[in-house]
Amino acid sequence: xxxxxxxxxxxxxxxxxxxxxxxxxxxxxxxxxxxxxxxxxxxxxxxxxxxxxxxxxxxxxxxxxxxxxxxxxxxxxxxxxxxxxxxxxxxxxxxxxxxxxxxxxxxxxxxxxxxxxxxxxxxxxxxxxxxxxxxxxxxxxxxxxxxxxxxxxxxxxxxxxxxxxxxxxxxxxxxxxxxxxxxxxxxxxxxxxxxxxxxxxxxxxxxxxxxxxxxxxxxxxxxxxxxxxxxxxxxxxxxxxxxxxxxxxxxxxxxxxxxxxxxxxxxxxxxxxxxxxxxxxxxxxxxxxxxxxxxxxxxxxxxxxxxxxxxxxxxxxxxxxxxxxxxxxxxxxxxxxxxxxxxxxxxxxxxx
Length: 352
What we know:
This protein has 14 helices and no strands. By secondary structure, the chain is mostly helical. α7 crosses α8 (148-172) and α9 packs antiparallel against α10 (215-236).
């Protein structure tokens, strides 16, 4: 399961977030949410852990807007878990509610609807089928980024599996809710992301749900599904009277693991192709533009001289001086990159 989770977290299908610098905030958002859920859901909640979880909520919220969803999820965890906590239930709920309201108000202060939103947000209410498809496709695209119908089925069936597994474990096998709560919270975070993003994006296209930047937000859902499926097969395959495990369920576990491995290998190949495409389409033109602005920089000259002659000739033909406005923007960016030895300057000596 550690390997399954690692493959999901580091998946190349989220290539957009790996390559576009500022979108690393989505990884930071998910990391903070997961850390906050772990802090809240474990037994023996203290003021230190509650404050640390609130800090993770602040990081998640101000990193990416969907971090606002962490606060109601945290409220639910505080209601259901930590019955033996070191802080009284009423005290922690009042604290969390007040903090949630303050953070939400500060985040939404002076919020203005983007001009690009030409239709009202209630549009999804008139197109329920497209909206529902967006939600399940959003969840399923982490496993089927290239197959929309596969993503739809994966998202829909996994939701049913999540509900069914939770019901069986709690009511049939009497598993403590405390054990399942972190995974249920993770899956709820991804589901609420699909619900909220769908409201704003479905009017553009249902296929927006398969955008690679959203894979990071749906990964917690699949980590939760994997954990609950493992617990389900383990519980279903154990004889309550004798405590012995049924070998058939062990075979089922390994079969699912092998199917997942094949699927992930395919997704890795897809991710590698998209990474190369993205690099040629966006990163190389940006690099060429940087080189055009700073041709007199010794470091840039060294880069050009080190290139293969054929590549250098092709690059020289593609270099064009940008207009004055664009040049000013690039100069500011280049000064920052040069100072901190980033991008094409990472192997250069710092400026004196």
